[in-house]
Amino acid sequence: MFSVKTTSLKAILLLGSAIVISSCGSSKYAATEKIYKEKTKEFAKIITSTPPVGQLYDTLNPTNQQWIGSVNFGVRKPNFVILHHTAQDSLAQTVKTFHSTRAGTSAHYVVSRDGKVVQMVNDYLRSNHAGVSKWGKDTDLNSSSIGIELDNNGTTDIWTDAQINSLIKLLTTLKKKYNIPTANFIGHSDIAPKRKPDPNKFPWKKLALKGFGFWYNDILKNPPANFDTTNALKLMGYDTSDIGATITAFKRHFIQTDITPKLTPVDILVLYNVYTKY
Ligand SMILES: [Zn+2]
Hints:
By secondary structure, the protein is an alpha/beta fold. It has helices at 2-24, 30-48, 91-97, 141-144, 161-178, 188-191, 204-209, 229-236, 243-254, 265-275, and strands at residues 80-85, 109-111, 117-119, 145-150, 185-187. α8 (229-236) runs parallel beside α10 (265-275).
């Protein structure tokens, strides 16, 4: 009797664990979704704490300060969009990478070659896509931008219409929703010229014609005699601490057929024209 009871108890326990396993296994991404939810809960705790922990009382003299919450505020919004190529072979491979804590990287969106858009981080949160980067005086692009990865292994200039059309739809939504300036749609190589080549051979002109980033005019005027190319690149936003890398990044974006770290007379005409738009 006793042994029968034990057996049935074991059976119930086994059944219970089977149900738990099947509910966890009902989604391929259950484990990573759980981690995402836990992390956002931690951030919610930070946001809802009053007074905010470590922002006032921990660092200054508490007798000379006070927390009084305002009633007028909102969440911070992204002001840039940074485009990347994944340098991987498929959407599935990129999703796997963005689930690897060892890789430590992510993006808000991944756009696949067939036009499917996968969101992986809430727009209001900081994804790890930009790394060490600089644009103008902004040295924390991860905090100020939306990162979009385009599934492309980086060796081809073939971008499918489905992928670019989905990207344009996504950019249209983001630009309108967060009021992102036209100039602020740029590439990873623009903000990290010493480190990153992506997106490579990218149809920037097509995007610029839709209002995302700038492109040069068909007719180019000569710059004034005192035109300073390094200063122009700097005023556009480029980090000019390694001017060769900066010129290559500029040419990767606007010239594409040649990315040698020297400005030809035609490159200078293009630079002068786009610089006046930024
Ligand atoms: Zn990148």
